[in-house]
Specification:
The complex is a heterodimer of chains A (170) and B (261).
Chain A: H1 2-5, H2 8-16, E1 35-41, E2 44-49, H3 59-72, E3 78-82, H4 95-104, E4 106-107, E5 140-144, E6 152-157, E7 163-167
Parallel strand pairs in A: 2-3, 4-7
Antiparallel strand pairs in A: 1-2, 5-6, 6-7
Chain B: H1 11-31, H2 40-70, H3 78-83, H4 103-124, H5 130-158, H6 162-175, H7 187-194, H8 205-218, H9 241-255
Classes of the chains: A alpha/beta (170), B mainly alpha (261).
Chain lengths: 170, 261
Amino acid sequence: MTAILRSRSEVAWAALNAVLDPEVPALSVVDLGLVREVIEHDDGLEIVLTPTYSGCPATEVINSSVIEAIDAAGLGPARVTMCRAPAWSSDWISAEGKRKLLEYGIAPPGPVLADGAVAIRIVGRRQVAVPCPRCASGHTERLSAFGSTACKSLHRCLDCREPFEHFKPI
Amino acid sequence: MQASIKIPAAPELAYLLRLADTCLISGQRLGEWCGHGPILEEDIALSNMALDLIGQARALLTLAGQRSGQCGGQGYDEDQLAFLRDEGDYRNPTLAELPRGDFAFTILRNLMLSTWLKLMWQRLGESSDAELAAIAGKALKEARYHQQHAADWAVRLGDGSDESRRRCVVALDRLWPYTPELFEDDAVDAAAVAADLGPAWAQLREPWLAEIGEVLGEAKLAVPPAPTFRSSGKSGRHSEHMGYLLAEMQYLQRAYPGGAW
């Protein structure tokens, strides 16, 4: 009964909550803060998404997964539009999303620091101590600024010796 | 074979193409490292940065293609602009098209270009063109990571072993003569400033020299003397390397017009 009382956009949000990011399949597109808006038009739903990185190869897959999920929920036709401004920030990942990242073994991003007086930060290997998502030790080092995807960096825990990825604040 | 497209001679279009092609051609050169990085992590890092740059180029070329339709020419999509122009219609500064060289050469060029792009995106965030400002807002975040990556490595290599330092010195000497082109104004800049589209390139010179000087200082590398040589890629007069790059980049679309994955 409750489903009948919910609006189309509420049902759409619930369906989108099940669309997983292809690069980080622990998180949905809603957890990642990629869904800006769901607009009900007379001729169908418009899902407004925001791209994460300019070169993210997952963008096209996400768009088609979103349309499939809306169709599967019986809410089609749907179309996806992209909204670039304001630019996506990792601060938009929900608290739930950050918890899921940690459980998945990826250290979640801290808050994005303002682009302050320091023009360039030259970062040594051990100057960015991201806590290990497995043993929580702060005794870690960065191996590479880029991990398996542009949005992640590669680190190693110096206590449990496990390598891990960190979702970069951007 | 697919024929070339014609680009209308409008300064605001040229301004967009100069920026778009800087991203596109740097992305193409960085992509050449895929499978050839000195270590796996750097192979992945350089390929990821290439993707960012090509993503930025796609957004800018889409915008430029619309602008082409508005200023008396035909409208084009990103693919037509990326693959179907003749060499003289590409507007990247020559620095971006030089062969990738060794890892030191690539890192130092990335440092120069990512610093330049970061300063450019910061200013384009204020553009009177809302779409250009939106592209800049996103690209700025990426350029900061690219610059940081290059700066970290420049310090590690410049202040590293005798061999890494020697290679940095050689690379810096080869690259430096191509940097004045990044800061020379012409009618294209004047039109962009008049329309509040974006800054004249010369405005980036002082902040660029300050940031590059800071990194080179940290890397214990001397800033080379001001060059007398002038490159001219952004006016469409490219180095001998550009034709080879385009031949590889354009081959599929020229041989199989409209071919898609």
